[in-house]
Specification:
The chain is mainly beta. A five-stranded antiparallel β-sheet has the order 1-2-3-4-5, with no helix packed on it. The protein is globular, with a radius of gyration of 13 Å. It starts with 14 loop residues before the first strand and ends with a strand. The relative contact order is 0.22.
Length: 77
Amino acid sequence: MTLSGRLALSAPPAYVAVEGHGQAGVSGWAGPWPVLEQWWDRERARRIARMQIAGADGRAWLLAIEHGRWWAEAQYG
């Protein structure tokens, strides 16, 4: 799944796979939301997007993307 510069997903998320946690189907999702971190400091500023994923296995994830790379920032369940 990719994210355009206008925050459009290439497709709705169908599954979530996080290294060390296996894979699960997606039962719901919200986002993505743009985040401009440390905007006041040109050298440290970064533009990312976050979204929430609810897995069919009962776990929920907060995912982030930057420069086309997704990672999990937090997990519940």
